[in-house]
Amino acid sequence: MPSEIAPRIAIVGAGPAGLYCADGLSRNLPEARIDVFDRLFAPFGLVRYGVAPDHQGTKAVTRLLDRLIAKGNPRFLGQVTLGRDVALDELRRHYHAVVLATGCAVDRRLGVPGEDLPGVIGSGAFSRWYNSHPDGGTCPAELGAVRRAAVIGNGNVAIDVARLLAKSSAEMAASDLTEGPRAAFAACPVEEIVVVGRRGPVEANFTTAELAELGRLARAMPVVEADDLPTEIGEAGGDRRTKEANLATLRGFVDVPVKPVRIRFLFHRAPIAFEGSSHLSAIRLRRADGGEESLPVDLAVTCIGYRGEAIDGAPFDAERGIVPNVEGRVAPGLYVAGWAARGPSGVIPTNRTDGMSLAGRIAADIAALPAPADDGDLFDRLRERGVAVVTYDDWHRHDLAEIATAPQGAPRRKSPVLLR
Ligand code: NAP
């Protein structure tokens, strides 16, 4: 090690990719000082703000991640925005290595006419609202008159959105939805949710557990046309076992008992325009046979993936919306993890594996990396210039306050601002 000081590593982004990398680093390099920055006051990224509010089991991973940062190293530095409060160059002057784990926060667009009509929203904007994200604001669409909604895309986000629109208030009682979204979903008079896929059921990206859950809802039934389901999965790429299990699950949906709300799967339909004068009234769809049809709807939620944003001082692949890298390596001393590295794919355990293996590569590289030019503590520098850094203790107080004020049956009462 050319440096006299113990390794210092900064991770930008306290979501699963960043925190699992921090976990791996603290195991591989127990002497290292690891600082995890996040632009939000709360850690856990998509686990807190992306995982659906009724999937509390999935959110349980925050307990492990919380324990990791509770020890003070890795150290959580919340409410610090890269590019505003600290530049990437400054981080690189303070640390041997910097890991970008900033995710993919921007909704991808379909790029078809009418996409900006009121009533057409992206799943990112929708989930930031219903997950009480600090940038979530008010609901991006008026849900009070929605009788038929379209959910565009055949991934797990599409399933989340369809399920949240379909569930009854009682089914949401144990969720962490706050009063506003809870009331808005409860008052939504939805009768039909159409899940629109541009390809077929075999090509869908659903995981089977998420798909099967739609068959167990209290007031909603999945609707699938038997003719849409092939008898064999053919040559489709991907995980054959999941595809077979998905097909079997969809077959099981053909004869489910009738319930008041329908979740209808419409395959082989690509949206080519959103129609309406002052508000969305229909989606123009192109069928696989080349024909077109119009689907009248009051709401369309596009669930077609996300992209990252360029970071000053780091390369950017504008087409894919990621930081280009080779196994997480961007440049000497600069790394990228999670969705910012590979795009918006994979589940939480995927980020665990990725974060852990990147940590191993950083540990292998660290001895050859030059010592930081500035050996001062960036936390002090940030405080000196008035950045209101949120510490783990601040976060912990907030966390306890959310739990203490939880409505009956709910795990917490999420607040979009830090409770002091
Ligand atoms: P996804 O799995 O990549 O699905 C995106 C869907 O959008 C695909 O069906 C894709 O179709 C479609 N699409 C893309 N561009 C389109 C276009 N121009 N026109 C029409 N359709 C288009 O992404 P996601 O659902 O956003 O999920 C992101 C990641 O988070 C995934 O890895 C997912 O598994 C994970 N996640 C997991 C859970 C869970 O475990 N419970 C919950 C939510 C999300 P093509 O396949 O034809 O491109």
Describe this protein with a few key phrases.
420 residues; alpha/beta; Rossmann fold; FAD/NAD(P)-binding domain; 2 domains; 6-stranded mixed sheet; binds NADP nicotinamide-adenine-dinucleotide phosphate
Record the SSE blueprint.
Blueprint: E1 8-12, H1 16-28, E2 33-37, H2 45-49, H3 56-59, H4 61-70, E3 75-77, H5 88-94, E4 97-100, E5 106-107, E6 120-122, H6 123-130, E7 148-152, H7 156-166, H8 179-187, E8 192-196, H9 208-213, E9 220-223, H10 240-252, E10 261-266, E11 269-275, E12 282-287, E13 292-296, E14 299-302, E15 306-307, E16 329-331, E17 334-336, H11 339-342, H12 348-365, H13 378-384, H14 392-404
Parallel strand pairs: 1-2, 1-4, 2-3, 4-17, 6-14, 7-8, 7-14, 8-10, 9-10
Antiparallel strand pairs: 5-15, 11-12, 12-13, 16-17
Helix pairs in contact: 1-12
Bound molecules: NADP nicotinamide-adenine-dinucleotide phosphate (NAP).
Describe this structure in words.
There is one protein chain. The chain is an alpha/beta fold and 420 residues long. It has 2 domains: 8-105 and 307-404, Rossmann fold; 109-304, FAD/NAD(P)-binding domain (3-Layer(bba) Sandwich). Helices cover 30% and strands 17% of the residues. The protein has 14 helices and 17 strands. The longest helix has 18 residues, at 348-365. Bound molecules: NADP nicotinamide-adenine-dinucleotide phosphate.
